[in-house]
Write a structure and sequence with these properties.
By secondary structure, the protein is mostly helical. The chain has 9 helices and no strands. Among the domains are: 41 residues; 57 residues, no CATH class; 30 residues, no CATH class.
């Protein structure tokens, strides 16, 4: 949190420097609007748009775009009927066919969480019975707090705020968020 009291967030205009842009919280919508205004690509995630804008505002060349991900080959997708002996094919998606099978085998509490999405995506050649065993083996970790990605700054802030204020109300948390994002990051 900033110790710079009395500062207020500047207007997001092309006159801003890249350094000043990086000191403040901006929404993706705000950043995209400025990117369009100055003729930069507005697509991509918040980190990419911010990096492009900061470079342009400081007169530096735009950062190299990350290599485009190789499109995932969908390949053959499983169709009913599936059993525990069914092998997961390369490129299998977390489909309704898989969901129905897992609900039958695991119960109505089944859902595709990060552990199961990763398993299906990365374990072609394994059976659905092995996927069920993976589900049960990961429940303790899944029940614990999961890390919130840096791109979800609002969610990270709320988790930290509620940890410090366990009895705090939602309105208080949102007021704290508004105050937090109105201060510089340094």
């Amino acid at each position: 949190m900033s110790t710079n009291t009395g500062e207020s967030r500047p207007a997001l205009t092309p006159a801003l420097t890249g350094t000043e842009l990086l000191r403040w919280y901006w929404t993706l919508a705000e950043l995209s609007a400025l990117a369009r205004e100055i003729g930069l690509p507005a697509g991509g995630g918040k980190a990419a748009v911010t990096a492009r804008l900061a470079a342009a505002l400081d007169g530096r060349p735009a950062p190299a775009a990350p290599a485009a991900p190789t499109p995932r080959r969908a390949g053959r997708q499983l169709s009913d009927p599936v059993t525990g002996a069914t092998v997961i094919p390369p490129g299998q998606r977390c489909s309704q066919v898989l969901r129905a099978y897992f609900v039958r085998e695991i119960g109505p509490g089944f859902h595709f969480d990060a552990f199961m999405r990763d398993y299906v995506a990365q374990h072609a050649g394994h059976t659905l019975a092995e996927a069920v065993a993976h589900w049960h083996a990961t429940r303790a970790r899944a029940a614990g707090p999961q890390e919130v990605g840096a791109q979800f700054e609002f969610n990270r802030f709320l988790r930290a705020w509620h940890a410090e204020h366990p009895d705090g109300a939602r309105a208080e948390a949102l007021a704290a968020w508004r105050a937090h994002r109105s201060r510089p990051r340094d």
